[in-house]
């Protein structure tokens, strides 16, 4: 069977085009480090990489949320721990005030300390973050949680939770409300006035009852806040564990993505050398065929 020169040249042209295409593709792959330059190069791998990329974005958002929530919880824990300390001092003052050996002057000497503690508790209750949002007013972050209404303290916040998503189906409350704080502040005002106006010692039944009631409320509030502090600490530990889990999943995803999309340079180099060799051979063959004529063989 005889093969026409034009047919042979067409075959060589197709071979040149194929080899040039493969050399160009392999060169681009080696420059980028990617095995797939187009989705059509490996549709199955491309779908898997796309899915892993989306999952990585979601995990990244979870981890950002966790970092922000941990900062918020840590700050809340610090403020509440300070309040627990203030209440410890208030408890000690009430124990001292309950001592039947106190004179009216002794009782009046406690007033300034109690007023300072009351004001400290009020100030901390109305703490704002760097963006001006109140930390302890539930979801009403634009409203100061505790204010003085006439002669009494009232709570203007709510008891709803602000929740942030930190995992698939997992959310964490970031706020703590202090709905019970006005009752304590009002009770402190009551005992402050009773001590300021004392004319007899703390053995007076009415005064003693006021001191005892205040001590009970101080203790119950201190216990409640201490429980909140413990809850915040536990939540931070859980978030740390969850973040570590996210990090492990992320590492696994990144490894899978590299395996699916990264180029095997050893294989690519070998293929590139082969196609370059074939390309050179095709060029040589094409050159020889192009120069053939009857005069060369006569």
From TrEMBL:
It is found in: Bacterial flagellum; Secreted. Its main location: other. It comes from the Bacteria. SUPFAM superfamilies: Phase 1 flagellin (SSF64518). InterPro entries: Flagell_FlgL, Flagellin, Flagellin_N. GO terms for biological process: bacterial-type flagellum-dependent cell motility. Keywords: Bacterial flagellum, Cell projection, Cilium, Flagellum. Belongs to the bacterial flagellin family. This is Flagellar hook-associated protein 3 FlgL.
